Amino acid sequence: MIEETNTENNLSVNSARPLARLAAARLPLLATALVLAFVTVNFSVPVLWSVLGFVFVIIVTAAAPARIRSERLSSAAAHSRILWPDTGMKAVVSSLPHPAFLLDQRGIMRFSNEAATAAFPQARPGDPLSMSIRTPRLRDALAAAQGMVTSRFEYRERSGAETVYVVTVQPVLHAAAAAPFILLLFEDVTERLATARMRADFVANASHELRTPLASLSGFIDTLQGPARSDPKAQDRFLAIMREQAERMRRLLDDLLSLSRLEMRVHQQPREHIDLAQIARRVVDGLRPLAEHLEVEVTLDVPAEPVFVLGDGDELHQVLENLAENGLKYGSAGKRLDVRLTQQRLDGETVVLASVRDWGPGIPSEHLPRLTERFYRVDVASSREKQGTGLGLAIVKHILTRHRGRLDIESELGAGATFTVRLPAAEAPADRITADEAPTPALAG
Ligand SMILES: Nc1ncnc2c1ncn2[C@@H]1O[C@H](COP(=O)(O)OP(=O)(O)OP(=O)(O)O)[C@@H](O)[C@H]1O
Ligand SMILES: [Mg+2]
User: What are phi and psi of 101, to 5 degrees?
Assistant: First the structure.
């Protein structure tokens, strides 16, 4: 409290001008003038002396650092000593969409909005904010704000998943306050940074993925034109590799195109009636040769009756095919792949669950959240060797988003992985409903 009063005194004194001081001391000055006039008249003091004496008093009053303040000044300043923000300021800070704090000049937190209380529950009014937000940048920014300078810095909050904020520290002048408050605004840029990083990674990855087969093709063209010019056996071998590389580039371009097409249509939900049971059967049939080659036994558990969803048949085929192919390619060590289709009531709606479960090595948990990112692969070399582009699950995710569906991935190291597609169930199309058929799909579970 003492410190606050001193701050106020200094401010008042510093801001007083000579004329203001004279005005403040006008009564004592008037009394001095009267006394001097009385003495001059009654005690024959030379007028010059009296005038010089009065001028001296005026100079001293105007120039000396006056410690005496008028009662009125003191009470006005006492009014202006606002340490807690008023209702108006609080209302404005409360309405801000980002976490925001109001601090006093000493960095003590005086008010926080709801978003700030939720994001930083450890920050309490009356405590210095630096106790909860521990970064030297905050101290520098507060010092700058005390000098009426706005500054910004990046702050990473590491409780649980990392959140990145851009913090703006800004002095806020209040007409009635002796000193400005300091507003801290925390803008969450985690998602924006992740998107920017993904975009940059995507371009880098796409060009890298294309450059590798391209470099191999140009290498073989040189060899065919040079050392292998008259070696038909080598030519056959190299041409076969070149076909493989060209095929790889084609697959990559196809995947990139289908991703960009899906991105453009992400808000258009396809609305054809599709029997997912039939698609699951076709996918498993199509992958039989690969399963036999890898010596994996595939089990298929789908209801005999149609299981309808609203969607695009080719896209849903692509979803199940990629999941089953992944299970075969990456989980072949388990020698078993289970494809299952059920309908259930979940969260108040009827959903179709299509799961693909392999019994291979599984996926370490730290990779699970990133698997659907473009080009993300747990083991790049192994994926390339298996002709993977790393775009399959990104395409799956886009297709499911368009279908108002979702993908859940569960895995236990050493015990395989389960990829479950969840889609809203649809009623049978009108032209399929006969007197014998139920109007809604049968519910399991
Ligand atoms: N069942 C699985 N078991 C272990 N790892 C898996 C499994 N499914 C996917 N992965 C990992 O996830 C990565 C991404 O899969 P994704 O389908 O997106 O790409 P890909 O199979 O490598 O290429 P593409 O599908 O384009 O041919 C794979 O490279 C692999 O590392
Ligand atoms: Mg794949």
Answer: -125, 150
313 alpha carbon to ligand 1 midpoint, in Å? 22
For residue 267, CA distances in Å to 222, 309, 404, 426 come to 47, 17, 10, 19
Domain regions of the chain by residue span: 2-80, 87-188, 193-264, 272-432
Distance CA 306, CA 284 (A): 16
- Per-residue model confidence (pLDDT) at position 45: 78
| Contact (Cβ atoms closer than 8 angstroms) between residue 339 and residue 282 | no
Ligand 1 pocket mutation pick from 386, 393, 411 by most atoms within 8 angstroms of CB: 393
Residue ranges in the chain whose pLDDT is less than 50: 1-16, 66-80, 435-445
Cα 389 from Cα 375, distance rounded (Å): 7
- Ligand 2 center from residue 320 Cα (angstroms): 10
Query: Which ligand is located closest to the Cα atom of residue 388?
Result: 1
Supply the CATH classification number for the domain 87-188. 3.30.450.20
Please, which residues have CB within 8 angstroms of residue 63's CB and are 6 or more apart in sequence? 18
> What distance in angstroms lies between residue 412's CA and the mean position of ligand 1's atoms?
16
Cβ–Cβ < 8 Å for 344, 303: no
Query: Could you read off the pLDDT of 238-258 as tens digits, one per residue?
Result: 999 999 999 999 999 999 998
What dihedral angle (degrees, nearest 10) is formed by the CA atoms of 393, 395, 396, 402?
150
Architecture of domain 193-264: Orthogonal Bundle (1.10)
CATH class of the region 272-432: alpha beta
Count of beta carbons in the 10 Å neighbourhood of residue 182: 26
